[in-house]
Amino acid sequence: MKARGISGIDVRGAFFEAVGELGSHLFRCNECAKTYKSPHGNSNLIAHASTHPGWLDKIYAGKTANGALNKFVVKTVSPKAKNVFGWIEQCVMLDRPFSFVEDPMVRRYTKLESISEKTLIKYMELIQPMIEEKLTAKIAAIQGRKNLGVIFDCKY
Predict the structure, then answer these.
(1) What are residue 61's phi and psi, to 5 degrees?
(2) Domain map of the chain by residue range?
(3) Rounded to whole angstroms, how far apart are CA atoms 140 and 150?
(4) Strand residues in 89-139 grouped as ranges (E)
(5) Scanning 8, 10, 23, 62, which has the fewest C-beta atoms within 10 Å of its C-beta?
(6) What secondary structure, in 3-state letters, does 18-70 show?
(7) What is the per-residue pLDDT across 81-137, written as a single tens digit (0 to 9) for each?
(8) For the chain, first and last CA: distance in Å?
C-alpha cells in the first residue's frame, strides 16, 4: 500500500463513514453498507475495500480531489480563531465570568493574546446558532431511544 502512495486513512476516507458514538471505531462501507469495526488501525477496512471492483481507482480519484494541499487548507485554523477559542473555552469550562478575560492577573499568566469582554461576547453570540444546531441534531438523533435525558450543569 505505501509503495502505491496510499494509506489506510485514504482507504477509510474513500470508502467508509464513521457510525455510532465517538470512539466506537465503527465504519460503514459507502459501497455496500456493511459495518466493520477497526479499533487498532485500518487493516479490516483495507481488506474489505479491496473486495470492491476498481477500489484503487476510487482511492486515487479521492486523493486527487482532496490532495495534501486541500487537506492542509481546510484543517488550518487562524491564530486569531485559536486565541478566541482559548478564551471561550476557559470562561465556559472554568465557569468564569466574561470579565475574566480583562483581569490583569489572568492576562499576565496566560499565553493567549488579550481580548476584551465585548469581543468575547461577540464571538460567543456568533457561535451560538451553530451550537444550537448541533445540540438539536444530537437530541433528535437520540429521541427515539429509551431513557432520554438532557442535563445542563449550572450553579445559578
Answers:
(1) -65, -40
(2) 2-73, 79-142
(3) 12
(4) none
(5) 23
(6) EECCCCCCEEEECCCCCEEECCCCCHHHHHHHCCCCCHHHHHHHHHHHCCHHH
(7) 999 999 999 998 898 999 999 999 999 999 999 999 999 999 999 999 998 888 888
(8) 56
Position 44: which residue type? N
Burial of 120 (0-12, 13-18, 19+ CB in 10 A): buried
Task: Write out pLDDT tens, residues 35-85.
Answer: 888 777 788 888 888 888 887 777 777 665 555 444 444 456 788 999 999
Where residue 47 falls (left for φ over 0; alpha for ψ -120 to 50; beta otherwise) is alpha
Please count the other Cβ atoms lying within 10 Å of the Cβ belonging to residue 84: 22
Element (H, E) at 17: strand 16-19
Q: How many residues does the chain have?
A: 156
| Mode of pairing for the β-strands spanning 26-29 and 35-37 | antiparallel
Give the separation between CA 20 and CA 80, rounded to whole angstroms: 33
C-alpha cell at 65: 480531489
In the block, which residue shows the cell 479521492?
62
Task: Specify the pTM.
Answer: 0.47
